[in-house]
Amino acid sequence: MKKITQRMCMGCNKKKDKRELIRLVYSKDGKITIDKIGKLEGRGAYICDNIDCLERVIKTKRLERAFNVKIKTEIYNELRGVIIDKKN
Asked: pTM for this structure?
């Protein structure tokens, strides 16, 4: 039986299967991207595919503290689009 990898959501602090979460990556060249395949190189952070978790992360600036960098609103807007697309 294969072990299912779990990660913690930065919004709700609940552990979930890695496949259920959206991964954000901060790469060495300073770019923040949404990792759709889950294998990009760099520091990763995970968020539920829930708009409430995203809003909580934005409000508390938890993602900015995790990556130690100011995050542009375009990235948050792209995340909103990914979350809404998954719901439809």
From this structure: 0.88
Q: What is the pLDDT of residues 13-45, one digit of tens each?
A: 999 999 999 999 999 999 999 998 888 999 999
Indicate the burial class of 13 (C-beta count within 10 angstroms; 0-12, 13-18, 19 or more): exposed
Contact at 8 Å (CB) between 6 and 28? Answer: no
Parallel, antiparallel or unpaired: strands 21-26 and 43-48:
antiparallel
- DSSP-assigned beta bridge partners for residue 46: 23
H helices present in 1-88, as ranges: 51-60, 62-67, 73-87
Q: Tell me how far apart the alpha carbons of residues 81 and 30 are, in angstroms, rounded to a whole number.
A: 22
